[in-house]
Amino acid sequence: MAGGGIAQSGGKQYPGLIFGYDLGVSGGVTSMDVFLKEFFPKVYLQSSASVSTNQYCKFDSEILTLFTSSLYVAALVSCLVASKITRSFGRKRTMTFGGILFLIGSLFNALATSLWMLIVGRLFLGFGIGFSNQSVPIYLSETAPSKKRGLLNMLFQLAITVGILVAGLANYAFDSWFKGNLPWRLSLGGAAVPAVLIIVGSVFLPDTPNSLIERGEHEEAKAQLLKLRGIDNVDEEFNDLVAASDAAKLVKHPWSTLLSRKYRPQLVFAICIPALQQLTGMNVITFYAPVLFKTVGFGSSASLASAVITNLVNFLATFVAMYVVDRKGRRTLFLEGGFQMFLTQVAVGIFMAVKFGVSGNPGEISKGIAGTLVAIICIYVAGFAWSWGPLGWLVPSEIFPLEVRSAAQAINVSVNMIFTFVIAQIFTAMLCHLKFGLFFFFSFFLVVMSIFIYKFLPETKGVPIEEMGRVWEQHPYWSKFVVQDEGIAMGKAAQNV
């Protein structure tokens, strides 16, 4: 891979940075007493009640969770529109528009004087996420060479973890340094910084060779491919891309084509991987780590500090995935991470059962017990960060042929946002009603998803994106659905006759 390709990849990560920031900032803000007192006074009274109250239900409020989850409803709607824009106008323009929406949303939140302004701001941020999550993983998969595709695609996930970490640091720092409304305004308004970087960066970012060919700009596409690969001759790869584009143009209705039998395996994974990614329970930690730590007896500042620790682990563990993914493959990371998360979810569930019981009254919590809980959650976060976190974006973006790629990515992001919204919206209610059983709930799905990966996911490391069809042809189960070359299939049938 030429140095130019790697250097350019840095400019593609700002959408991931702001996505991570938005994921991480809301949980910290909703644990700030001054924020709760102004916008959610009922929750503030519940959360500040004496320790004798049921800790499981302190933050049970549908309006409070709507502040977090409204972002994902907007992302769901916008990614469906973004599919058409990504295909018709290119990947980079989709990113630019997403950056503009991010900027509007961050300004609404920073200047909010009422709940409706907070919700509107989150909706604009969600629209931006829909556009960027539609375009960026496709961009990375299309520009990366097959041997480095996993590594470079994971830069998007790395940027998400950086955003989450920055959000945690910002929440902790602003809450410590400033008083009154300034901490939460600075935290929410901080999203404007990466938003501006997205807008400026995407202006100078070239589009992908696939997208340029798709829109008839062949000479520019070849020049861009030469620059990305850093070699003198890319004729073979360029001709493959042109052939794939010509085949894609024959598909007039990619949404209905996607439902055809030969795309059944990829469609299953485009739906199941993002759904199961959310059922790992990781977004509960991402959204509500400060709230969760505060629930188990940490003070406001201590809960924010503990969230920073888990965010740092999330960031560092992503480097493990980047190192391993193109060496050991996708399946190895999926299975190891799933096993690690299962063990730690069970451990957290047992901890909550022993310490809180059914009543939710923990009494006093020692520093040793609190530290043990943080350590267990850090091990869990590390497992997610080098498995289902980055692979949840990588695998769906690399398995589809060009003719249905944009539509398929829209489905992938849509399913992700649906489940993210549901988990974000009902988490505090589930914690209140299921109590410690919530963690066993997620443990069950970790078993299900690991079995699913083991039985049905073929290894895709090192496979050129334009040749991905062969991995399904060679799979013992999916081969019955996929016929890559109908002429060959008909010939074999004739011979059998």
Automatic annotation (TrEMBL):
Entry superkingdom: Eukaryota
**Single GO cellular component term:** membrane
Q: Which CDD domains match?
A: MFS_STP
Which membrane topology term applies here? Answer: Multi-pass membrane protein
Q: Where are the transmembrane segments?
A: 63-83, 95-117, 123-140, 152-174, 186-205, 267-289, 301-325, 337-357, 369-389, 410-430, 436-457
Keywords for this protein:
Membrane, Sugar transport, Symport, Transmembrane, Transmembrane helix, Transport
Gene3D superfamilies per record = MFS general substrate transporter like domains
| Compartments, record wording | Membrane
Pfam families per UniProt: Sugar_tr (PF00083)
- GO MF annotation: an example: symporter activity
* UniProt cross-references to SUPFAM superfamilies, sorted A to Z: MFS general substrate transporter
UniProt keyword annotation of Transmembrane present:
yes
Primary localization:
membrane
Record-linked PANTHER family: MAJOR FACILITATOR SUPERFAMILY (MFS) PROFILE DOMAIN-CONTAINING PROTEIN (PTHR23500:SF477), SOLUTE CARRIER FAMILY 2, FACILITATED GLUCOSE TRANSPORTER (PTHR23500)
Give the protein's recorded name.
Answer: Major facilitator superfamily (MFS) profile domain-containing protein
Source species of the chain? Rubus argutus (Southern blackberry)
